[in-house]
């Protein structure tokens, strides 16, 4: 329990950020789908702070000599996954934007033809 008291501040920051994200999702300022991966990222870092001994054992088993190096490797890996997810989302939005522009051009052409036929 004394270990938990030593690292409570980082866990509290993770919890506070998670609460802010949940509040933004409930107010519909953020989409739930996009924020779930970020919440998982915060959860992993929060668990690393709550259970430092288990994190230390895992880091040693994975070949890290310093816990800070393991922490940064995990954080960088998770941030890379978040970035990849954002790139996928942006690509989908771009493709949909192109499709909508093309559909709008087709509708505009039909409208112009219909107006020309009336005259």
The helix count comes to 5
Report low-confidence residues grouped into runs of 5 or more: none
Largest sheet: none
- Report, as a whole number of angstroms, the end-to-end distance: 84 Å
What does the radius of gyration come to?
24 Å
Mean pLDDT: 88
Number of domains: 1
The percent range for helix content is over 70%
The percent range for strand residues is: under 5%
Structural class: mainly alpha
Shape: elongated
Order of helices and strands: HHHHH
Number of strands: 0
Give structural attributes.
88% helix; mainly alpha; 5 helices
Q: How would you sum up this structure, described in words?
A:
This protein is an all-alpha fold and about 120 residues long. The protein has one domain. About 90% of the residues lie in helices and about 0% in strands. It contains five helices and no strands. The protein has helices spanning about 1-5, 10-25, 30-50, 50-60, 65-119. Helix 2 runs antiparallel to helix 3 (about 30-50). The model has no long low-confidence stretch (mean pLDDT about 90).
Please give a quick description of this structure.
The protein is 88% helix and 0% strand. It is mostly helical. The mean pLDDT is 88.
Layout of SSEs?
Elements: H1 2-6, H2 8-26, H3 32-50, H4 52-61, H5 67-118
Helix pairs in contact: 2-3, 3-5
């Amino acid at each position: 329990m004394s270990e938990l008291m030593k690292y409570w501040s980082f866990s509290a920051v993770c919890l506070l950020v998670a609460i802010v994200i949940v509040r933004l999702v409930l107010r519909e300022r953020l989409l739930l789908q996009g924020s779930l991966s970020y919440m998982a990222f915060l959860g992993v870092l929060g668990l690393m702070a709550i259970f430092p001994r288990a994190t230390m054992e895992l880091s040693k088993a994975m070949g890290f000599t310093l816990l800070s190096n393991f922490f940064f490797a995990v954080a960088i890996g998770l941030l890379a996954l978040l970035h990849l997810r954002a790139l996928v989302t942006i690509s989908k939005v771009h493709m949909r934007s192109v499709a909508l522009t093309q559909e709008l051009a087709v509708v505009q052409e039909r409208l112009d033809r219909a107006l020309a036929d009336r005259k």
